[in-house]
Amino acid sequence: MAEIKIGHHSIDVDIRAELERYNWTRPRWSGDKLIAASPFRYDQTPSFFVRLEPYGDYPAGTWSDSGAYDEEWRSGNFVKLLAFLRQETYEETEEYLLGEYGWQYASGDDNVKLFNLSLRVQRNRQPLNQNVLTDYVENYEYLKSRGISERVQRQMGVLYCPQQRAAVIPWRLANKRLANVKFRTVYGKIFWYYKGAQPIRELVYGLEFAQPTTVICEAEVDAMSWMEAGYAAIAVGGASFGEAKRDLILRTPIEELIIATDNDKAGGKLRAEIEAAMRGHVRLRHAYVCGGVSEEKQGGAKDANRALELYGVDSLRKAAEQSDVVSNISVKLRIRGG
Length: 338
Known about the structure:
- Helix content is 25%, strand content 22%.
- By secondary structure, it is of the alpha+beta class.
- It folds into two domains: 2-114, DNA Primase, Chain A, CATH 3.90.580; 130-326, 3-Layer(aba) Sandwich (Dna Topoisomerase Vi A Subunit, Chain: A, domain 2), CATH 3.40.1360.10.
- The strands form five sheets. A five-stranded antiparallel sheet has the order 3-4-5-6-7. Strands 15-14-16-17-18 form a five-stranded mixed sheet. A four-stranded antiparallel sheet has the order 10-11-12-13, with no helix packed on it.
- The termini are far apart.
C-alpha cells in the first residue's frame, strides 16, 4: 500500500493490485516500478513507467510516457492513469478510490479510522443540447479501420472532430436524448468526455436500441462490434457496474443479457458484478470471445472489437451461440436446531 492524495485526503492505495487488473504489453514488474508499453498509444516498446512507491519528490502512482503524442499525456498522477484504465472521468475515479480505500485500519492498537468524506449532492441531470454536435463532421474512416461499418456508425451517431483528430461518440438516454459525448483520438488511445455532462456511471451506452436479447460489454466500440454481428448490444463504458446502470437496464425491453466482457482481470471482475446485480431480474448467459483466451495466446483476443478485427463477425456469433446459461435458482439451506 502506498499513500496518494485525493483532494484534502491522503489514503493508502494498493497501486500494484489496481494495475494488475489490466493487461499490459511487455510488462516488467519490480518492487517499486512497473515498466511497460504505453497504454495511451499503439506501442510495443517499454516506454512507459509507473512508480509503485514514492521516489524522491515523486509520490507513488506517478507515471511517465517518453513517447507521448500529447504533452498532456506525457506524465501524471495515479488518479489520471486509473481513470483512463477504468474508462471513466477523473472525478468518478476519485470517488471509486475514496470508496474503496477511504478508511484505515491500524493493527497495532486495533483502531479503525474513518475519513469524514463529503458526499456529492445528486443533481437533477439535464440532457445536452443536440447542437453540441453541430461542429463535427461525418467521417467514418477510423472506426471502419476497426471493422465498424458506416451503417452501424450512422445508427449510433458517430461523428469526427477534425481539430482534435478524434472520433465523436454520442451517449444517449433510452429516449434518445443526448446525455454525454465521448471523444477518442484516432492516432492513439486517449479519450475524454464532454465537460459538465451526465457522468458515465449513470449511463449505459446503446440503450435506445435495446432488444429482448441484448449483449452487454465494456466499451462502445465493442457494442458496435456486436451490432456488426447482428446483435443488439449495450456497453457499460468502464470497469464497474452499479445500481444506477442496473436500474436503467430494468426500464428497457431487455429480458435476456449476454455478458461478454473483456478477457482480462478487470473484465472478469465486471462480469461478476453484472451477474450479481442482474441475476433474478433477467435471464443471463456468459459469452467468452475467443473462448476467453486473451490476445497474448494464439487464437485469442482481448475484447469483441479485437476479435472482429482478427477473426471476423463469425467469431462473435460463435461466442454467443456457445454462451453458458446462468441459473436464476438460489438455494438457501435452513438448519433446524435440536
